[in-house]
Specification:
By secondary structure, the chain is an all-alpha fold. The chain is built from three helices and no strands. The longest helix is centred in the first third of the chain and has 28 residues.
Length: 98
Amino acid sequence: METEGLGLGIGLGCLLGVSYVLISFLSNRIALQSTRNPMAVVIGAMLVRVVVTLGLLVIALRWLPVAPTGLLAGFFATFLIGLAIEIRFFHRKQPPTS
C-alpha cells in the first residue's frame, strides 16, 4: 500500500470534492432563480464542473506526489456527502404536493 503522499492525496481530494459541491450548490441556486431557461444553466454548469474537476484530478494524479487511492477516496467521500446534503436541501425547499 502506498503511504507516501497519502495525507496530501486525501486532503487534496477532499478540497476538490468540497469545492465541487459548493460550486454545484451555487450554480443550482442560480438556476432556480433564473426565469429564462433554468435547465440550460443546470446542464451547462454541470458539464463545466465535471470537465474542470476531471482535469484537476488528472493533473494532480500526473504531476503531484499524491497517492491515487487517497486522492480519489477523499474526493468521492466528500462528493457523496455533499451530494446527499444538496439533495436533502433542495427537496426540503420544494412545496408539498397534494
